[in-house]
Amino acid sequence: MAEKKISSSSTAEYFAKNLQQVGFSSPTKAVLTTLKEAVDNSLDACEEHGILPELNVEIEKMGPGSIKNSERIKVIVEDNGPGIDADDLPKVYGEYLASSKFGRGRCTRGQQGIGISAATTWAQLTCAHGAKVISKTKAQRKAVSALIEVDIKNNKGAVKKRETIDWDRPHGTRVEFVFDGRIQINGDAGLLSYLLGTSLVNPHVTLNYKLPDQEWVKIERVSTTVPKIPDAIEPHPHTMKLGEFIAHSHLFGRTKVSAWLKRGFSRITDSVIEEMSKRSEYKVPKSLFEKNADQLTNAEFDQIFTALQHIDLKAPSTSSVLSIGEEAMSKSIQRLGKVDFFSVVTRKPTICDFKPVQVEVAIARLEERSGEGDSLAQVLRFANRVPLQFDKSACAIVHAITSVNWRSYGLGQAKESIPQGPYIFAVSVVSPFIKFKNASKETIDASDELVEEIRRALMQAGQKLSRYIKAEHKANELEEKIRYIEQFGPILVEGLARITNAKEDQKKRAQDGLMKILGRDANATEKELTEANKKLEKHIANESAGEANA
Amino acid sequence: MRKGGKSQSEIPIISKQLCLRLLNDLEKAKRPVLYATKTALDNAVYNHKVGYLTPGGKKVATELNVSSVKKMSRAVFMLEILLRNIDTGAVNTKRELYYISKGEIKGTPMLKPLDFGDQPESDDTIDFICELLECYREEMNCYANDRGGQTYSQQLVVTETMPDGTTATIDLSRLGTSPFQPKNRPQNLTLKASKKIDFCLIVESEGTANTLVANGFTKRHNCILMGAQGVPSNAVRGWAKLIQDQLRVPMYFFGDLDAYTLQNIYRTLKAGSAASLIRNQDYSAPEVRFLGVLPGDIKKYDLFDYPVRENDAQEVRALKKADDALKNDPFFQDKKNKGLSDILHWLLKNKRRCEQQAFFSVDPKDPTMPEKIIVDKIKRGDFV
């Protein structure tokens, strides 16, 4: 038998064969993922450089695709970001894991440097044509235009057709992908849901978009504050596995173990190290802390790691999370359409599963959807301000929504399901370490602690919302009571008068009496309505005062 | 004049009094309150000397307010139709009254808000009126379909007084194989026996009643044989009461041995039901005895019985209800009915049932064997 040769393959080769793992599992997903990766990159770049983003997104159909049941699609995303140095273009668009953000523990959209290279690969595999990029930095007089492709064998970006061109932008990047895909405009997994969701959680973005066969649409920014992405925090030892722990040490080279632990992790201090060396169980000898990290054996790593897992450590700091804020959310939600009323809740940052997390919720009732009383409310899910559009049922956000009894807040809901009615539920989870269920970042893992935190935010939002619903309910009740009085009062008296052969004056007196009785009921309801309205006004005033203080 | 309820001539008077009270209250801007008898088991009283379930003192009060104005307006509207029927002598079923009300509303746009969406809404209104006036719907000339009660006898003669005062005489012995079908208005019937009648047998299954007659039961015995056709209709209940009162013959019920038959069929026939507390007086025959199938018959005649199937929803529900009945139903709690509550205990404990047709298994070659067993049981006093 011939000996089989064992060969290693490049990261690019791996992803090229497994694009389904990073969001390219169907032609429909390919369009959305390409768009999403390009937009994420643009927004992250703008925010890093304190620029208020203005994005132009254009999606075109160019004819039938080479894959069965697909079309040839062109996706263009243009931003006013800082631009990319010409030398970095192949790294950004053509090399896997070449990210400036990998494992840094910050609340950026992109984390690993896989997505946009995967989009280039998909375009290359389906159309033999990579990403066409134009980019200009502030320092450049002319822009660079290049076609970037992935050298799959070597995981390197390859530059083709590089030229210098005139571009009437002070700075920015324009990327164009042509590939096989299929366009879905509406529905949870549709392009519109993505674009609206992105604008909702990014109040500072001005978004211009054009979908196939439609006119350009402009969504103006409602905030002029560029979110400041908090500094990174180091990982917390309780969130790691042994392998990750060892790999983490490699980033520090020849460093003393005690220094590596203190610098490389959250919440490890001198006193923690001291305690580890004094404990009766899971004791780590002092000498081990004095060794260099690169000289530790695996058994020694294991000893330190196990000791760390058995010691009480403070939860990590929550200063690394980034919130949109209730005021910005309140303005942004009104960009989704004509809103009857809404409620927003920004929870304080907290710790779930030893990771800092902040949850924000916005619920709005849309006037234009008032006919959709029986259909399920629309759920917009966000992780680090990126819309999640697939695998809804497994997501922590959906678990939390269905666990709340929305009937008690006046919404329609079948048992343990998403509430009904013309509502939008937007839930944003922000964390430097979001645990996704898969590499394509479509679903947030539903841990009990996270679900409970989201659930609390939802219930707070529900309570706020119920004030509007209650006032509206009282107004409807009053209207119905008045209608009942007008309709049934005369019928009842007429009927009684006919059976008893009552005279006209007796009938008239009875009619007046009945109106008095029923009028009292209506007055009582009117009083309740006034009360409900007062409470609502007070609530709105408190909210505004809170925003002003903030 | 009838013994129970109100006579029909009283109804227009009581109705007018009620409406006048409402009108007077309204004139004074005082909130009128209507009281209706509560027809539920927790308001049922049983005294074995009376023999049937009677209403207790609980009333359901409906106060006029914005929420009840529709219900009251509908009641007054339907009452007018019913009073008109009493006046003209017209009779209707509930469904017909539903359509009559639709027709009235169609012709008078002002009445549109009263419109009944479906028949249950108009049925509820009719029932509400009966509870307010404490009368039967039959007294309001509203009759149900004459279901069940097909009766055979060689000795029974029925005289029916027609609405126009003329009479018709029906000699059941001259009907051949056709049964006599009792009417919903038993007060118009007079019974006579051409020869001494020894007993009246009410069989749960209409089919088994027919078989017994076809095999010569009524030829060999001086009796009345009736098929109940499941839960007895008002016609069957009123008819059994009439036979009991006018002929004074021993009466026996023969049906399945299961919780449903005992509670829903036999108890209703003998003592009425909680839902019909107001009319049990005229729609129950307390003299009817339970001939079987008795738990002892299974062993005695080696009958086929079988466990209650878990997917038999009706019987599983009846068993649950039986447990409740033993705790809350005054009929089964009465000492005089200990024999019947013992059967319920037996059913709950053994969770088995035996059908009336199992008597056909005793001697498959002898088609008259069930008849022989029934007559033998009557002779020996083997009943509860």
Written account of the structure:
Chain A has helices at 11-17, 27-48, 89-94, 115-127, 191-201, 242-250, 257-264, 270-278, 286-290, 298-309, 326-333, 396-403, 448-500, 504-549, and strands spanning 54-64, 71-79, 131-136, 143-151, 156-165, 172-181, 206-210, 216-219, 339-346, 350-352, 355-366, 378-383, 386-388, 423-430. Chain A has four domains: 11-219, Heat Shock Protein 90 (2-Layer Sandwich); 237-309; 326-466, Ribosomal Protein S5, domain 2 (2-Layer Sandwich), CATH 3.30.230; 469-549. Chain A is 39% helix and 19% strand. With 384 residues, chain B is of the alpha/beta class. Chain B folds into two domains: 10-140, Arc Repressor Mutant, subunit A, CATH 1.10.10.10; 151-380, Dna Topoisomerase Vi A Subunit, Chain: A, domain 2, CATH 3.40.1360. Chain B contains 13 helices and 14 strands. Classes of the chains: A alpha+beta (550), B alpha/beta (384). The A-B interface holds A 481, 484-485, 487-493, 495-500, 502, 506, 509-514, 516-518, 521-522 and B 15-16, 19-20, 22-23, 25-31, 64-66, 69-70, 72-73, 76-77, 79-80, 83, 110-111, 113-114.
> How many extended strands of chain A?
14
Largest interface: A-B, 29 and 29 residues
Instruction: Summarize model confidence as the mean pLDDT of chain A.
Output: 84
Provide the helix percentage of chain A: 25-40%
- Strand count of chain B: 14
Strand order of the largest sheet of chain A: 5-4-3-6-2-1-7-8
Radius of gyration of chain B, in Å, reads 23 Å
Mean pLDDT of chain B: 90
In which range does the helix fraction of chain B lie?
Answer: 40-55%
- Mind describing the biggest β-sheet of chain B? 5 strands, mixed
Number of helices of chain B: 13
CATH level-four homologous superfamily name of the largest domain in chain A: Histidine kinase-like ATPase, C-terminal domain
The termini of chain A sit apart by 75 Å
Name the poorly predicted regions of chain B: none
SSE topology string of chain A: HHEEHHEEEEHEEHHHHHHEEEEEHEHH
| Most strands sheet of chain A | 8 strands, mixed
Give the tally of structural domains of chain A. 4
Find the structural class of chain A using helix and strand composition: alpha+beta
* CATH architecture heading of the largest domain in chain B: 3-Layer(aba) Sandwich
User: Number of domains in the coordinates of chain B?
Assistant: 2
Q: Mind telling me the CATH class of the largest domain in chain B?
A: Alpha Beta
